[in-house]
Amino acid sequence: MRLLFLCHNHPGLQAGGTEVLARSLFRELRDRHGVEGAFLAAVTGAHRERRPGTMLQGINDQPDEMLVWLGHFDRFFLAQPDTYGLASLAPVIAELAPDVVHLHHPLMFGLETVDLIRRAAPRARLIFTAHDYFPLCPQEGQLLTTAGRLCQGPSLDACQACFPGRPGADFVMRALQMRDVFRDFDRILTPSAFARDRYVAAGWPAERFTVMPNGLLPAEPAPHRIAPDGRRDRFGFFGHLNRFKGGLVALEASRQLQAAGIAHRLTLHGGAAYQSDSFMETLRADLAATPAATWPGPYGAAELPGLMAQVDWVVVPSIWWENAPLVIQEAFLHRRPVICGGIGGMAEMVRDGVDGLHAPVNDPAGLAQVMRRAMTTEGLWDHLVAHIAPPPTIAEVAERHLELYQDAMGLITA
After folding, report:
1. Which residues fall within 8 angstroms of residue 267, CB to CB, at 6 or more apart?
2. Alpha helices in 260-343 (DSSP H)
3. Predicted confidence (pLDDT) per residue in 4-20, tens digit
4. What does the alpha-carbon distance between residue 337 and residue 307 come to, in Å, rounded to a whole number?
5. Mean pLDDT in the chain?
6. How many beta carbons lie within 10 A of that of residue 311, not counting itself?
7. Cα separation of 40 and 269, whole Å?
8. Which positions fall inside the Glycosyltransferase subfamily 4-like N-terminal domain (predicted)?
9. CB atoms < 10 A from the CB of 229, how many?
10. Element (H, E) at 7
């Protein structure tokens, strides 16, 4: 089997959950199952300087992992007008002659790439994983309004409230185009049932969807922190710092706990690249006003076990319908209970009172109350830890993907 993976960035440049999962899956299929192919990541000048003479670049001495420089992109229509850059992909795809093309994100590549693939590899089966809601929501695929409120799904009135300057025809055409282009895909995968249901509610055909969980590379669980006084009062945030992930909510919750005289520690682990000046000013001001919180900055994958060893709880205070955050699986791998919002894929992954706790979304006071309960309820931490189930491994998930690819190719018969 020959396989082509497309992703909107490379984990060597931006270690987001989608990028990490996609590259790990590609390598697992290559190394354990003998699948040949290529991992192609789209980048812009913000990630890697464009080099003269070619739109393609190598990375990390991996002959089957490449970058394609696509610096022009319409985020509203998910359109890539850089026909020159796309044209450079055609001979690469034709020479590879993939049996399966797996698109892990339409960002940067754009919907035009689907048509290019159909022409360059007409016999390839197309698979798409909806890691978020970009095909449904022009507001950065978050299903979150510009005012920070949860959106139940796209509608003309709701979308125009977020984009008051756009004519209604733009939203109608966008929705029709998305359904038309993704109709070409043989399978559409979502890491959560919640995400599948959002797409189906928006008019996408239910029979095309398969819920496919994410998986992690194997790792030895980090030891639990020794707490001489028995208090489990160390909280860790892991992930990119932006307004969607709720780092500011966690800081305000910590400040309120501190004002109430409740001793604890909150550590924010992660970078804040590409954030606005106003967000960074707010972040620094909130950190200065919250002595119980620290922000060491970005971290690498190899550092994660050591950082997990310093915390008792992992806080996932996202304010949007998260699909299936890898950080929750990482927390469970290292046997840390998770405190998260009781919505979307988070509520699907974390069982309230069983292996974690649910907190009100975008509500610092509510989060502070749950954190206080986590610290002060005798036996709660031990109870939750005892009921944490190991997350799926990348090996297990790769086998499921391989079976799905074979089925799409008609190699599996009933």
Report:
1. 234, 235, 236, 237, 293, 294, 295, 296, 307, 310, 311
2. 277-288, 304-308, 326-333
3. 999 999 998 888 899 99
4. 15
5. 94
6. 25
7. 28
8. 16-215
9. 7
10. strand 2-7
Query: 10 Å Cβ neighbour count for 83?
Result: 11
- Measured in residues, the chain has a length of 414
CATH superfamily of 234-386: Glycogen Phosphorylase B; (3.40.50.2000)
For residue 136, give every residue at least 6 positions away whose Cβ sits within 8 Å of its Cβ, in sequence order, or none: 143, 153, 154, 178, 198, 199, 202
Phi, psi of 352 (to 5 degrees): -60, 125
Residue 31's Cβ-count burial label (10 Å; 0-12, 13-18, 19+) is exposed
CB within 8 A of 193, min separation 6: which ones? Answer: 211, 348
* Residue 348 vs residues 30, 109, 377: alpha-carbon distances, Å: 30, 30, 24
Q: SS3 of 412, please?
A: coil
Burial class (CB in 10 A: 0-12, 13-18, 19+), 101: buried
Q: In what order do the strands lie in the sheet with 313-316?
A: 293-297, 265-269, 234-238, 313-316, 338-341, 356-359
Is 87 within 8 Å of 68 (Cβ atoms)? Answer: no
H-type helices in 97-153, by residue range? 112-120
Whether the model pTM is above 0.85: yes
Question: For the structural domain made of 2-215+393-408, what CATH number should be given?
Answer: 3.40.50.2000
CA distance 379 to 231: 10
List, for residues 298-311, the tens digit of each pLDDT value: 999 999 999 999 99
pLDDT of residue 413: 56
Sheet strands side by side (includes 36-43): 56-58, 65-69, 36-43, 2-7, 100-103, 125-129, 187-190, 209-211
pLDDT tens per residue, range 33-44: 999 999 999 988
